[in-house]
Amino acid sequence: MSEDFIDVVIVGSGPTGSAYARIIRRDWPEARILMVEAGPQILPQTGAHLDNIADLKERAALEVQAQGGDRTPRIPMSKEEWEARRAGGFDASQLRRSGLFIANESDPAENLFAGFSAANVGGMGTKWSTGTPTPSQVERVPFIPADELAAAITVAEGLLGTNKNPHPDDQTAIAMREKLGAVFNPGRSSDRFVQPMPLAVTPGPNGLRYHGTDVVLGPMVDEPAESFQILAETACRRVVYEGSRVTGVELAHPGQDDTWFVAAGTVIVACDALHSPQLLHASGIRPQALGRYLNDHFIISQMAEMHSDVPMQAMSWIPPTNDFPFTVTIHPTSFTSITRPDGFTGQPVGMGVFCPADLNPDNRVTFDDSKRDWMGLPAISIQWRESEGDKARQDYAKQTARKIAEIIGRPAPGFATIVQPVGSSLHYQGTVRMGEKDDGTSVCDRNSRVWGFDNLYVAGNGVIPTVTATNPTLYSVALATFGARQIAREGRQRQAA
């Protein structure tokens, strides 16, 4: 693809950037689209999911390549750290998540924000859990008509390739869900009953094939470069604009000073909730809400012991409702040789209770213009503090986790109910949030167009403005379809004129 003029430049190659590309291509077939990715192409298949690689050593080596500027292999958890975690204490392995880690306190056990960002073609689409549960009504954007958002969610399910019941014959999981349903289903609508976790997967004779952005992009991965191209190992240093119109992007190879300019009709910043505001800040685009309202749900982890003669394979889901604020995921897990405690004779079952956090404009991403990261952009820091309401909900979530464990079998002996550091879900939101009007509390409108600009959009979990407890990928892809349709519509109108 030549560097003269591109109809649409997408910065970031994750699920929402890929969704923009696919919907724009559907509605505007002639559009020339360029996708920019700071990280490398780590797999032969564009944007494929790493979990499809059976060889764990090979997978781990590729994950290191997706860590951006920090490609230090992760040190495994030690026995001492594992025992500390089992006992409910803080273990230092939580500070060794591969990739970007940001903490704002000298005491890492207090107000730690554990952030991570993938940098590779496919973004987090190469690493995500593939969970695609639908957000509850209270989690949805209130100023988007309900029928429009429901239709967008259906489109997003198609883009991601959601399977509502990947293990339909798992009798152990079915029996467990029946027991849980007897307690949690009364008073719920049928779509919010205890159910299989929807996953973006394709079942096959050798197990599940996990969907990455290769599935979202579909046939676009085989298009000629003149029509669609992904520039790997290319950082966007700046979005260039004149007045209310973006004119293009300034690009560079990470670690190099030389830059080049690509003229663009529209630019979509689809990095992530940490790096999208970073790029806007570096570009001098700094609305009052930029980087603020950083939000994530806490994860309360509980190990349960189930007694069943048949191993469970399926993941299950207790959805949130207006009266039940948590998303609960229940899944089979396993022990290593050093971790099974005495007296534990049944199946280990893992559980994560996603617990929502209060919105706070002072929980935010900040940037240091005097320091540069590996991409040559202002260094990121996090300001985060949990509220008293957050602490109360965590206590309620712990009680809920233990109650569920009792229904499944019993809380696993020797395992405490623990709260993972906020950020561990990798579901952070709100930093480029959408709003109903430009009143200083949002960055973009309901179609994700940045306030004050005609042709600049943002994408990703960062646009979500509400308090959530649900895995957000399906939600953020659904929101991306509104902006993509608008870009395609306006592009066709310009061509016709």
UniProtKB/TrEMBL annotation:
<feature type="domain" description="Glucose-methanol-choline oxidoreductase C-terminal">
    <location>
        <begin position="362"/>
        <end position="480"/>
    </location>
</feature>
<keyword id="KW-0560">Oxidoreductase</keyword>
<protein>
    <submittedName>
        <fullName>Pyranose oxidase</fullName>
    </submittedName>
</protein>
<comment type="similarity">
    <text>Belongs to the GMC oxidoreductase family.</text>
</comment>
<dbReference type="InterPro" id="IPR007867">
    <property type="entry name" value="GMC_OxRtase_C"/>
</dbReference>
<dbReference type="Pfam" id="PF00732">
    <property type="entry name" value="GMC_oxred_N"/>
</dbReference>
<dbReference type="Pfam" id="PF05199">
    <property type="entry name" value="GMC_oxred_C"/>
</dbReference>
<keyword id="KW-0285">Flavoprotein</keyword>
<keyword id="KW-0274">FAD</keyword>
<dbReference type="InterPro" id="IPR051473">
    <property type="entry name" value="P2Ox-like"/>
</dbReference>
<dbReference type="InterPro" id="IPR000172">
    <property type="entry name" value="GMC_OxRdtase_N"/>
</dbReference>
<dbReference type="InterPro" id="IPR036188">
    <property type="entry name" value="FAD/NAD-bd_sf"/>
</dbReference>
<feature type="domain" description="Glucose-methanol-choline oxidoreductase N-terminal">
    <location>
        <begin position="195"/>
        <end position="298"/>
    </location>
</feature>
